[in-house]
Specification:
452 residues, alpha/beta, OB fold (Dihydrolipoamide Acetyltransferase, E2P), Rossmann fold, five-stranded mixed β-barrel, five-stranded parallel beta sheet, 12 helices, 49% helix
């Protein structure tokens, strides 16, 4: 029995790297990884290249420009981050690496979700409504500051207030601004300041920090204290990019503690300019009022002159003359109108008087009689002519005229005989001639065909 050597399976380097890369991508899929950024670089291409390490190991990572543009912070070496990506192999060098698709600061994912949930809830309650925002006093005499008594925020605020509004009295309400006990302490400080009601405006401030450091200002009990506070409240928590729930509920949000102090107080130089502007405006208003009063006095004097008794008497006398002339003119016009109406009525009465009507009726009667006589005469002539024409026509067709020419009408029993066969010998017949009737008796009959 012969033993054959096993067949060798030889890979090229490229093929081996490709199969390893395929096995890594299909075997693990998408993974989440937490660690510290190391050797972070961002070349001109815009891609991120870095290592993610813990206390014992590290892994090379790449995050391409198409994905890293969606992160909302600036990653730096030393940052603790949470990433999501796929395991792979850079086949050109055979380097094992993680292709990152998402990156966020470690620990902020859960906090961000909690922040969004609280924000959505309070927005639904109307705690962010602009209608509920209270205006800030233009010249506060007392300013309350709620912050840590040992932090940098109080120093920044005091410097700004000393420069902008040195005459204002500052009252500090010290409290914790970080840690598990910070939220109830901050809410208690707000309630205390609101209950004492000894300041004109409140500043709720804290310096910058991570989301965990600022989390106390996202708690609902702090938001409730801010919302229920009767004093105007300015929130200046963290840096410009930091936004907390307290910022959204406050009457005014400032990007920093220093900005909160500036927004709550007027600048002395600006106030001097405003006072000067107000003084000149007051002078202008006063001068304008004096000019208006002079004009009004002149107008009243003119009106007084126009209403002098002598002037009034002259005006009334002229008015009486005008009315007298108008009255006379109206009376003359009225008289002419009445005379014209009287002439018209007289003419109409003369036309409708009984004597005139009798004359008119007689004239009409004579005219009608003449028309009637003429009509009767014409009717008689016309009737006579028609009668003569009819008589001539009647004579033309009359049987008597026929009889005058020698013809006769023979009747038997009042029936005209036109056929000899209708009578018999011995019958009595009547023969009518032009003048008279002949009675006779038939002796014999001869028909048209010669029979008798």
């Amino acid at each position: 029995m012969s033993l054959e050597a096993p067949k060798r399976r030889v890979y090229t380097v490229s093929r081996l790297n490709q199969e390893v890369q395929s096995a890594l991508e299909s075997g693990f899929g998408m993974v989440w990884l937490q660690g510290e950024l190391s050797n972070f670089s961002r070349p001109a291409s815009g891609h991120f290249y870095f290592s993610l390490k813990d206390s014992q190991s590290q892994i090379r990572c790449a995050m391409f420009r198409g994905r890293n543009r969606y992160i909302n912070f600036e990653p730096q070496s030393g940052d603790e981050v949470l990433v999501r990506g796929k395991l792979g192999l850079y086949s050109a060098r055979g380097d094992f690496q993680l292709i990152v698709e998402h990156m966020e600061p470690a620990g902020t994912g859960k906090l961000q979700a909690q922040f969004e949930a609280t924000k959505k809830k309070l927005q639904a309650l109307g705690w962010f409504s602009q209608e509920d925002k209270k205006p800030l006093p233009p010249m506060p005499q007392r300013i309350g500051v709620i912050t840590s008594s040992t932090g940098a925020a109080i120093r920044d605020v005091l410097q700004v207030l000393a420069r902008r509004c040195p005459q204002a009295e500052i009252i500090l309400y010290p409290t914790l601004v970080q840690g598990a006990q910070a939220a109830p302490k901050i809410a208690a400080a707000i309630n205390t300041a609101d209950r004492r009601n000894e300041v004109d405006v409140l500043l709720l401030v804290r310096g910058g920090g991570s989301m965990e450091d600022l989390w106390a200002f996202n708690e609902e009990n702090v938001a409730r204290a801010v919302y229920e506070c009767e004093l105007p409240l300015v929130s200046g928590v963290g840096h410009e990019i930091d936004v907390t729930i307290a910022d959204l509920v406050a009457d005014l949000r400032a990007p920093t503690p220093s900005a909160a102090a500036e927004l709550a107080t007027p600048d002395d130089d600006i106030m001097i300019q405003r006072v000067a502007g107000a003084f000149y405006a007051l002078v202008n208003i006063t001068n304008s009022k004096v000019e208006r009063h002079k004009s009004a006095l002149q107008s009243l004097n003119t009106r007084l002159q126009s209403r002098h008794p002598r002037r009034l008497l002259e005006d009334r006398g002229q008015r009486i003359d005008e009315l007298d002339e108008r009255l006379r003119s109206a009376m003359r016009s009225e008289t002419r109108q009445h005379r014209l109406q009287l002439a018209q009525l007289s003419s109409r009465m003369h036309a409708h008087s009984p004597s005139q009507r009798l004359i008119n009726l007689r004239t009409n009667l004579i005219s009608i009689k003449m028309r009637l006589d003429g009509s009767i005469q014409n009717k008689l002539i016309s009737s006579t002519n028609r009668w003569k024409i009819a008589a001539r026509a009647l004579d033309t067709v009359s049987p008597l005229a026929t009889l005058e020419r020698g013809f006769a009408v023979v009747k038997h029993k009042d029936k005209v005989i036109t056929d000899a066969s209708t009578v018999e010998p011995g019958d009595k017949i009547n023969t009518q001639v032009a003048r008279g009737i002949i009675h006779s008796k038939i002796e014999s009959i001869e028909t048209a065909d010669g029979d008798s």
